[in-house]
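Dock adenosine monophosphate; give full complex structure.
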Amino acid sequence: MRRLRTFAEARDAAAGRLALVPTMGFLHEGHLSLIREARRMADTVLVSLFVNPLQFDRPDDLDAYPRDEERDAALAAAAGADSLFVPSVDEVYPVAPLTRVHVEGVSDAMEGLHRPGHFDGVATVVAKLLAGLRPDVACFGRKDAQQFALVRRMAADLSFPTEIRSCPTVREHDGLALSSRNVRLDPGRRREALSISAGLMAAADAVEEGERAAVVLEDVVRERLGGRIDAEYVELADAVEARPITTLDRPAFLAVAAFVGDVRLIDNVWLDPSGRTDRGIRLETESILYGGER
Ligand code: AMP
């Protein structure tokens, strides 16, 4: 497993069709599923590890973000990656960028409202990765539904020739969506956090039983969250434009952001007016976030 520190080194190491899996590291099975998908798509699989300061709206969240390059290198290699791209902040931002990428509309609701500047940071760093590494395909998780809509639109608007693919959300066996931030939840908070996915699953059940009204689906989730979890938003949104909608009359996702203690978590289910739902994939055993091997 090669560790590449500069854009030029990473470009030189690519042979044949290149797939990129952008991450902020502290890998879990969600990331590993993207790496496996990338492996199926390309000759060279490059995983980037970069905790992008530009997309953090809270300095405490940036400081607390878990990091472990050795652990990530071993996991990425086992999942089929060829190289790790681990640039320094100076490599990515040799000077403070005067150019920011802003994707209008897709950035406005939900995460965009609650994390000012976050999506401009995401769009800017992903544009830099696509421009600097020139992958043929890049894989993203549907766990970050609005981010996926944003990246897909940004790549189309800026004529990046990279194919933007999405992969399902990977969950713990009890439903909690995997997130590197989960390691900051103590056992009590970890139990509380379960009501987020439980609420989303109940809403998906309601869709399968015929419910289409956003307000009803959102209430199903809020009821499960109860008084203990403070949701920043519960919103049904158009899957392509990431704009809130009132009726499930097109492909959509139902998204939640909530603080569990001081850890901010997001999750969603993908819903279709035909009644089909995409709830993600559940692991059979506890994830590697809790120290197990895979
Ligand atoms: P992050 O390291 O959190 O920035 O995530 C890197 C990539 O992994 C993004 O495309 C995420 O959407 C994806 N990802 C994160 N968590 C999951 C998950 N539980 N299931 C599937 N993909 C995920």
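Observed: Residues 23-24, 30-31, 33-34, 140-141, 143-144, 167, 169-170, 177-180 surround adenosine monophosphate (CB under 6 Å).
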